[in-house]
Write a structure and sequence with these properties.
By secondary structure, this protein is α+β, with helices and mostly antiparallel strands. The protein contains two helices and five strands; from the N terminus they run E-H-E-E-E-E-H. The chain has a five-stranded antiparallel beta sheet with strand order 1-3-4-5-2.
Length: 142
């Protein structure tokens, strides 16, 4: 059985930054939000940072997959500002890794939360995908 403590450690982290562009805003939700960073963009960045925190350190044949995210968006960020997201491992339990999310821009904190990722065998994931795809294929043939 894979012992994640051989590959990952509490405190391990990754940061990503990006300048807010029009495509990162809430314009598709409301014209009022068209100049402001959208919460889904923050969550997308957190997921990306989580993958960068974990996956490069896993043994060959293993990947992490997201299983839950909780994010509280506390302050607005305008187009042109730079957002930075840091994810840090705060717990490792069996095959799950819990990450803390911190988000900020030039003016200070803009959000926080947690993201949980499960470490799985890539081959096992592909088997499950194939089983589910076969089910859909068989269903459409009826």
């Amino acid at each position: 059985m894979l012992d994640l403590h051989d590959y990952l450690s509490v405190g391990q982290n990754s940061m990503i930054s990006q300048q807010v562009a029009a495509s990162d805003t809430g314009a598709e939700y409301s014209e009022v939000l068209g100049e402001l960073l959208a919460t889904p963009t923050c969550i997308h960045m957190a997921i990306k940072a989580g993958i960068e925190t974990i996956d490069p350190y896993l043994p060959e044949g293993f990947i992490s997959v997201g299983i839950s995210t909780r994010f509280v968006h506390t302050a607005p960020t305008s187009i042109g500002m730079t957002v930075t997201i840091r994810t840090s491992i705060i717990a490792i339990e069996e095959h799950d890794v819990l990450l803390e999310i911190k988000a900020w821009d030039e003016q200070g904190d803009i959000g926080h939360g947690q993201h949980k990722r499960a470490i799985i065998s890539r081959n096992e994931l592909e088997k499950k995908v194939n089983q589910r795809t076969r089910f859909l294929t068989n269903r459409s043939l009826r």
